[in-house]
C-alpha cells in the first residue's frame, strides 16, 4: 500500500526496555518517522532507542523527559514536535507491545479514504484475553465519556489512535496522565471534529503489568468528568457568544 509520509508514529514510553525494540522493528515496515518520547524511564529504554537510532536502520526521533511526567505529558510533547515539523497527523500506540502494528495500515487506509480528524482503535469487538475488571471499567468510562461528548466512542481508554494536526493545534490539554486520552476525545467532539471508531486487537503478555493505578487513575478520571462539566459549560457559552 502507498504510505502517507506526512503521518508520524508517536510512541510514549516509560520503562519499556523489554518490548520497545520489537515495537520499533515491527513499525519499520511502514517507513514512517517514529517519534519516541521517553518519559523519565529509569531502565534502559532510552539506551535501546539510542542504539537503534545510531544504527540508522530506523527513522527515529527520541525526545526525553528528565523525570516521569505521565503519559498525557509524553503525548503532549510528541504532539508539539509533530506540529512544529508540519506533520498531517500522528498515529499513537503503546511501547509495551499491546497493539498489533500490522493494524497501523487500517488507520492509514481510513485516513486516506475518509479523512477523519480522530480515529479511536476499539478493543470491544475483540476483547478476548482482556481481564474482566479492565473490560468492565473500559465499558463504564466509555459510556460516560460518550454521554458527555454527545456521540458514541467505543473505547475511550485506547491508546491506539490517529489524531490530525488540526485537532492537535486547536485543543489545549489540561491533564497529564491517563485521563488525557478521554479529555482529547471530549474536546474534539465539542468542536465537531469527525471521530471514527475502528476495531483492533489487543495483545496481553503473560507478564504484562499495567502502569494504570486502579485507585489514583480512577480518581483522576472522575475528577476529569467533573472538570469536563465546567469546560463544557464554558465552551458552550463561548460558542453562543461567537454566534451572536
List the uncertain runs. Answer: 240-244
**Beta-strand residue fraction:** 15-25%
Helix content: 40-55%
In whole angstroms, the N-to-C terminal distance is 47 Å
What is the name of the CATH topology?
Answer: Spore Coat Polysaccharide Biosynthesis Protein SpsA, Chain A
CATH superfamily: Spore Coat Polysaccharide Biosynthesis Protein SpsA, Chain A
Query: What series of H and E elements makes up the topology?
Result: EHEHEHEHEHEHHEH
Q: Structurally, how many domains make up the residues?
A: 1
Q: How many DSSP H or I helices? A: 8
What structural class do you assign from the helix and strand content?
Answer: alpha/beta
Output mean pLDDT: 86
Q: Give the beta-strand count.
A: 7
Globally, the shape reads globular
- What top-tier CATH class fits best? Alpha Beta
Largest sheet: 7 strands, mixed
Organism: Candidatus Shapirobacteria bacterium CG07_land_8_20_14_0_80_39_12
Protein name: Glycosyltransferase 2-like domain-containing protein
InterPro entries: Glyco_trans_2-like (IPR001173), Glycosyltransferase_2 (IPR050256), Nucleotide-diphossugar_trans (IPR029044)
Pfam families: Glycos_transf_2
Amino acid at each position: 500500500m502507498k504510505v502517507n509520509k506526512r503521518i508520524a508514529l508517536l510512541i510514549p514510553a516509560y520503562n519499556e526496555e523489554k518490548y520497545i525494540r520489537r515495537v520499533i522493528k515491527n513499525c519499520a515496515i511502514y517507513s514512517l518517522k517514529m517519534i519516541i518520547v521517553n518519559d523519565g524511564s529509569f531502565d534502559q529504554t532510552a539506551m535501546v532507542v539510542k542504539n537503534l537510532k545510531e544504527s540508522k536502520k530506523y527513522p527515529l526521533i527520541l525526545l526525553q523527559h528528565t523525570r516521569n511526567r505521565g503519559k498525557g505529558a509524553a503525548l503532549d510533547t510528541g504532539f508539539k514536535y509533530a506540529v512544529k515539523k508540519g506533520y498531517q497527523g500522528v498515529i499513537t500506540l503503546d511501547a509495551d507491545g499491546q497493539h498489533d502494528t500490522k493494524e497501523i495500515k487500517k488507520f492509514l487506509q481510513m485516513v486516506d479514504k475518509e479523512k477523519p480528524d480522530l480515529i479511536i482503535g476499539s478493543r470491544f469487538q475483540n476483547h478476548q484475553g482482556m481481564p474482566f475488571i479492565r473490560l468492565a471499567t473500559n465499558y463504564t468510562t466509555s459510556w460516560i465519556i460518550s454521554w458527555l461528548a454527545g456521540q458514541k466512542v467505543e473505547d475511550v481508554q485506547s491508546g491506539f489512535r490517529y489524531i490530525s494536526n488540526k485537532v492537535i493545534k486547536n485543543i489545549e490539554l489540561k491533564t497529564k496522565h491517563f485521563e488525557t486520552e478521554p479529555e482529547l476525545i471530549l474536546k474534539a467532539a465539542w468542536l465537531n471534529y469527525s471521530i471514527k471508531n475502528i476495531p483492533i486487537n489487543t495483545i496481553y503478555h503473560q507478564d504484562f503489568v499495567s502502569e494504570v493505578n486502579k485507585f489514583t487513575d480512577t480518581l483522576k478520571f472522575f475528577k476529569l468528568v467533573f472538570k469536563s462539566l465546567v469546560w463544557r459549560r464554558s465552551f458552550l457559552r463561548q460558542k453562543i457568544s461567537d454566534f451572536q
